[in-house]
Design brief:
By secondary structure, the protein is an alpha+beta fold. It has one domain (about 25-139). Helix content is about 30%, strand content about 35%. It has helices at about 1-20, 105-110, 125-139, and strands spanning about 25-30, 40-55, 65-80, 90-95, 115, 120-125. The strands form 2 sheets. Strands 1, 2, 3 and 4 form a 4-stranded antiparallel β-sheet that branches. The protein has a two-stranded antiparallel sheet with strand order 5-6. The longest helix is centred in the N-terminal third of the chain and has 20 residues, at about 1-20.
Length: about 140
């Protein structure tokens, strides 16, 4: 009976270690290899354990993925530049549902077919449809 209990304990420890050391995604790029000046650019989350950045070796212009070999801690945070920003293009923390939760952006897009920020044109119909899908999925 003791050997069986010891065997079950060892199996449990192996499963627990496997889960703990299994890589979990805790960061990466939210736009192509070259990001436009505005919009969400990347996200990150803290890691209790070992964090490692993976960049594909066979792809020169690919983005990175941060993997956590441990436990992701805290809430995922997203960074980028607001579409309405015209001067300071340094990344700052934005809600990960941006621009769907930005009332200024939604108001601008309600009365127009397209909007242009820094030379990049966005189709309001597509943005409104994507935001409606996102809101429906989160509820």
């Amino acid at each position: 009976m003791q050997q069986r209990l010891l065997f079950l304990l060892i199996i449990f420890i192996i499963i627990l270690l496997s889960w703990f050391l299994f890589p979990k995604n805790v960061g990466g790029v939210l736009c192509g290899p070259v990001c436009p000046p505005n919009g969400l650019h990347y996200y990150k989350q803290s890691c209790f354990g070992i964090e490692n950045r993976f960049i594909p070796k066979d792809c020169i212009d690919c983005s990175y993925t941060d993997m956590c070999f441990g436990i992701p801690v805290g809430k995922k945070k997203c960074y980028g530049v607001s579409y309405t920003e015209t001067e300071n293009f340094e990344d700052k923390e934005l809600d990960c549902n941006y621009p769907c939760n930005d009332e200024d952006f939604k108001n601008i897009c309600q009365n127009r077919e397209n909007i242009t920020f820094n030379g990049i044109t966005y189709v309001c119909e597509w943005i409104n449809r994507e935001c409606d899908l996102l809101i429906t999925q989160n509820n």
